[in-house]
Amino acid sequence: MTRERLRITNRLRSRPVFFAPAALLAIFVAAPQLFADEPYARSRDYDLQHSKIALRFNLEQKKVLGEVTHSLSILRDGTAKIVFDSAGLTIEKITVNKAAAKFETTAEKLIIPLATEANAGDKFDITIRYEGKPTKGMYFILPDKDYPDRPSQIWTQGESEDTHYYLPTYDYPNDRLTTETILTVPASWITVSNGKLISVSDAGKGLKTWYWKESVPSSTYLITVVAGEFDEVKDTWRGIPVTYYAPKGRGDRLPVNYGRTPAMMELFSKKFGVDYPWEKYAQVMVDDFVAGGMENSSATTNTSKSLVHPKLAPEYLTGEDDLISHELGHQWFGDLVTCKDWGDVWLNEGFATFLEAVWTEAHFGKDQADYERWNNVREWFESASLWNKPIVRHDFDDSSEFDDNAYGKGGLVLDMLRHQIGEDAFYRAMKHYLEVNRSKNVVTADLAKAIEEATHTNVDQFFSQWLYGAGAPKFDLSYTYDAEKRQVMLTVKQTQKAEGRVGLFRVPVAVEIATASGPKLYNVSVSKDKQTFSLAADSAPLMVLFDKGGHLLKSADFHKEKKEWLYQLKNASEVADRADAVVALGKMRNDEEVVAALGDALSNDKAWGVRATAADTLGQLGAASACKLLLAALDSKDAPWVRSRVVSALGGFKDDPAIVVKLNSVAKHDDSYRARAAALQALGRLKAPSALATLDAAVTADSPDGFLRNSALRSLGSLGDDKAVPLLLQWSVPGKPIDSRTAAINSLARLQKDNEDITKQIADYLTEPHFSVRMAAIYALGSRGDASAVPALEALLKSDDLSIEMTPMIKGQIARLKKTADGKPGASSTSVDPDEESSEHANSDKPTTEQRLEKLERLLQEMSDRLKSMEKRLSPPKPY
Ligand SMILES: [Zn+2]
């Protein structure tokens, strides 16, 4: 699965973080349902081998009418009953080997007693006729009075344990089956499901029946059903059908966003030495999707937000490729080889995240991949609540196993492994892992075993510290030069506190020492809390790099003089080392030499990531000379992904009328939509007197997908002028485009904070069917700080159609409001909702954001040691 945030690597450097003090909340809120998944795989009584699933739909009532035949084989002697997972479904009739059978149901189970006890190897065909109005698992997105022209869409989302809300089945990953999916839908619709399309036949009464067959087994959370009004674009890879679907009317957006899919299939097939394993590859984009993407076997479902307008798409360097490569990567890692339990879900998500980087490196080049890794490392360290949790863990009762340890850290750990054992050995090991575990379920030990078998490298210690242990090394670094001995004495301290699952790390490190006669590389092994390495150097070093290129998941405080950082910025060969220099120099205030060097990097560094980071940093320095350099950079027409960062950086300079004039001009006339959107945001942030007029005008004007309108609506919240309330109310109502509504709702939350009518209006949006409107309302209420919203949020918590992400989010916002009501400072003024993150800090790493988050986290932790903080990344708005 892709959390929405994975779509935005590179595009949006915000870190939507929220905190759900679940333990404390349990005192106040009797949660009606557990949202936690089962951490360990179940013991099994039977092996589900094949399911023939026939579905019809009652669109008016949003009901599914199903008949499923499960073919299964008993695994244990003396089995007296068959138990399926089934929630909220009305079971009408059951036959066992064609004979009518009795059954009983509980809230979560369907139990079928067998006439006589069965023995291992006995086979049964069990047919279940049922109907239901699914509260999750299956979603009906249909035209309604507010959106009469919306294309009809029915889609499912099985992961993690939601398939049994629309299909009685075995709903845990540790069983695999083949499927037939037979879907009867209006004749004008199309359907997408797992496997090959066998036939489409007339079913009378204006209906057609689509027959899909999947002959490669996979787990039930990977079953998919999509039906509705879609445009289709056909492509192929090595003769295998590759298809893309968009909600009707948006088919022209498919090639520009999805056209690189076959090239990715080729790359991954070659890299793994195992060809793409399914009979076709479909990607279907649906509206109001509850995740970023979902890797259903052979038929991925993605959010329609990935259908970026063709006029905007060229403004994003890597486009939607992170999402596309992530879900495609899962077709091997996740679908062909599947985690046995959710405690090992990193074997799905860490790999898929790593494969984003593999594609990036192959297609966009090493600098791009390096820059993203540099960002990802920093991002992980900023998520403090991930620190003491191992990647492989089974204690996620009150948090989620789908955290950024499974995703981000998992991906980085695989990248480190590749770097440490070498590219050839790494892919040899991956090939072996895929081959021996093909169509099987795995735990982390299976990966270690496969690596050792394929490469004869023992990775036990590596796995122990990075996967079963928590944290990462934090280094304190310094050196002296002994001119007599011609030696650099490099002192390395590990400063992370060894406690819980965090220990000292043993890591190989590449150290580069550059002197007047050139650079020299040394490989050292760090393992102690303090070590000093003596390294030969023919003269005093100009530059010492620790972990050249930034391959380790680490933080480092390297005590260097200014001249060394300046040299490093100019001369280091790797992106990560130059970017580190930018950050280090950014801490030196009131220094014109530093400003000039950053200006030089902004204009001349060959990697755009370094140029953009230099822009961010100049914005933070706030000196008049820095401002001049940023303004000058606007004349140079750098790529939109840099230009928007330069514009954003200008939003850090208060009280300079010349900047407001420039930002107004960019907002109105720039060639780049992203730059224009960034200017609108910056104007709001600066609270410029002229901003209201510019933002008003931008809301009224047209742009692709309302891109500038949405940006202006967001910015009105930062501007903080209550005169904007009527305009925001107008754009928040049903019928307006969803993205405009979420932007308006977010900004409304920040205005007229004592006006309970606004709070009530936002609370009304909590019960809307639109996932993103709901999300926006939840966060808006939390950040608004008006405790009168608590009952509405608590009521929402009791509704039974919440996706797994939503429950902790709601609890988090309730906690914020209750804290505000108790008079504790910080909660309402320190907003951490994703919308605000992106509106205020898109495309930058401003320390103000980090400081705000840290402050909030400290507050929460101080409140009670019973508080457990957690965080998640979720559905941000379309960024600029
Ligand atoms: Zn995923």
Structure description:
The structure is a single chain. This protein is of the alpha+beta class and 880 residues long. The strands form 7 sheets. The chain has an 8-stranded mixed β-sheet, with no helix packed on it. A 5-stranded mixed β-sheet has the order 16-17-18-20-19. A 4-stranded antiparallel β-sheet has the order 9-10-15-12, with no helix packed on it. Helix 12 packs parallel to helix 14 (608-621) and helix 20 runs parallel beside helix 22. The model is unreliable at 5-35 and 825-880 (pLDDT under 50). Zinc ion binds at residues 1-2, 326, 330, 349, 352.
Q: Helix segment count?
A: 28
**Distance, first to last CA:** 24 Å
Please state how the strands of the largest beta sheet are arranged side by side.
5-4-8-2-1-11-14-13
Total strands: 29
Mean pLDDT: 90
Low-pLDDT stretches? 5-35, 825-880
Tell me roughly what share of residues is in helical segments: 25-40%
Bound ligands, named by name, code or SMILES: zinc ion
Shape: globular
